[in-house]
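Hi R.,

Here's the input for the 4-nitrophenyl phosphate complex you asked about:
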Amino acid sequence: MVSKPTGILFVCHGNICRSPMAEFCMKDLVSKADCAQRFMIASAATSTEEIFHGIGNPVYPPAVRELSRHGISCKGKRAVHLCRDDYAKYDLIIGMDHNNLRNMRRILGDDPEGKISLLLDFTGSPQDIADPWYTGDFERTWDDILRGCTALLDELLRG
Ligand code: 4NP
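And here is the predicted structure with 4-nitrophenyl phosphate in place:
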């Protein structure tokens, strides 16, 4: 029997820095672990600041460069807005900071199935991932995202 892939949606404010970095980091990890077919991975924004007339901006160039330093491409990714239907579509909906969490709950409503969390909740040191749009420190963001995604995949593979 082929079971339905686990849907993972990463969420941040603009969907041009942290959540696309998490999306493509996680896609890279599952591909290297030879289990990409078990997951459906995407990312979305709580704001519409990077979406104009329905067309999202591409990933912010410093985030593209940080991913490419790790051999990862995010070609073609454009910002999309989180919508209420995403709650049913995904199994895990993962924000980067408490501000994201507040906005995710506003858009998605209640979380009766316990799908909503923060990425670093999966690690031994749950905390916010600082927004590199303001800090300019994309390397630090990458380190946090890699730590979070590695812990998340470990948990998912342990089942
Ligand atoms: P992100 O970073 O939420 O990690 O994608 C930001 C991107 C854009 C803006 C803020 C944060 N903005 O204000 O446009």
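One thing worth noting: The two ends are 17 Å apart (CA to CA).

Cheers,
M.
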